[in-house]
């Protein structure tokens, strides 16, 4: 149980760190620049903070960690014995490290002039520069986010199907209250997967395509700044609302009766609890 929660929490911490970087870019750069005027806007720093909001940490905050959570959940459900083994290689740490390096490497081409994702003081929003290079990179990132969202959603759906099948198999020995609790968790898990997989894709669409439909300042502001802040707000809100801590079985033991007999119902209830433990700790 501990190793399942440990891997999940490490991924959540990395998602939170990436969201903090994005929020700091708004606080440290966008807000002061909007107040001071664009005349005091160093272009190189604008490019640097733009890659935080639109590329590196953004990819880590959204599609990369969503994929990690989906894979973590799927492996825990499909291969619980392997998942709970003590491995010499900390696979979760390795995977997260590789994804951080990949997200930063993918943001490096945008450091080239005329290829960047920057903050526009005139519209108080973040968006790609109006150049072929910048638009092309934005389209690549949008397509990547869309593909990863589809793959992540597919993995989550397969995990939910496995959970449902396991629940049906345990239905005969499972307490009614526990069964209802599991159903509510599955519904919450499905809702969370759909929303989180769609939020970053929607934000990329707004920043890459939709913002070009209408040149009004308020529309640019909504597609650029409001959309980006809403994504990290929704991320944190969903994780807070839908993630419930799994309670570990009590270490205390009941005092056995003099006959030391265990009723059939008690035995079956404990068996169902142990078999479903792995699945329960991977639901959010």
From TrEMBL:
Domain 7TM GPCR serpentine receptor class x (Srx): 3-243
Entry keyword annotation includes Membrane: yes
UniProt cross-references to InterPro entries, sorted A to Z: 7TM_GPCR_serpentine_rcpt_Srx
Parts of the chain that traverse the membrane: 12-31, 94-120, 140-161, 218-242
Keywords recorded for this protein, A-Z: Membrane, Transmembrane, Transmembrane helix
PANTHER family according to UniProt: 7TM GPCR SERPENTINE RECEPTOR CLASS X (SRX) DOMAIN-CONTAINING PROTEIN (PTHR46611:SF7), SERPENTINE RECEPTOR, CLASS X-RELATED (PTHR46611)
Record-given protein name: 7TM GPCR serpentine receptor class x (Srx) domain-containing protein
Lineage summary: Eukaryota, Metazoa, Ecdysozoa, Nematoda, Chromadorea
């Amino acid at each position: 149980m501990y190793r399942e929660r440990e891997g999940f929490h490490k991924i959540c911490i990395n998602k939170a760190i990436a969201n903090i970087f994005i929020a700091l870019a708004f606080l440290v750069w966008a807000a002061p620049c909007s107040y001071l005027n664009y005349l005091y806007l160093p272009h190189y720093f604008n490019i640097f903070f733009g890659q935080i909001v639109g590329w590196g940490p953004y990819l880590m905050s959204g599609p990369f960690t969503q994929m990690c959570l989906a894979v973590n959940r799927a492996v825990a459900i499909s291969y619980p014995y392997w998942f709970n083994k003590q491995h010499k290689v900390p696979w979760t740490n390795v995977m997260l490290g590789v994804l951080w390096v990949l997200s930063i490497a993918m943001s490096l081409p945008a450091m080239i002039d005329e290829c960047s994702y920057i903050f526009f003081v005139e519209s108080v929003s973040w968006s790609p520069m109006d150049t072929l290079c910048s638009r092309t990179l934005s389209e690549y990132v949008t397509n990547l986010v869309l593909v990863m969202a589809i793959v992540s959603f597919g993995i989550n759906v397969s995990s939910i199907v496995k959970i449902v099948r396991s629940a049906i198999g345990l239905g005969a020995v499972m307490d009614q209250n526990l069964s209802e609790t599991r159903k509510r968790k599955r519904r919450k898990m499905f809702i969370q997967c759909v929303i989180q997989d769609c939020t970053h894709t929607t934000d990329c669409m707004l920043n890459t395509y939709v913002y070009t439909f209408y040149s009004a300042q308020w529309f640019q502001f909504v597609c650029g700044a409001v959309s980006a802040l809403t994504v990290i707000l929704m991320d944190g809100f969903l994780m807070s609302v839908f993630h419930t801590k799994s309670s570990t079985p009590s270490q205390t033991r009941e005092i056995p009766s003099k006959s030391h007999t265990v009723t059939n119902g008690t035995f079956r209830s404990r068996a169902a609890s142990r078999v479903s433990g792995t699945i329960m700790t991977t639901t959010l």
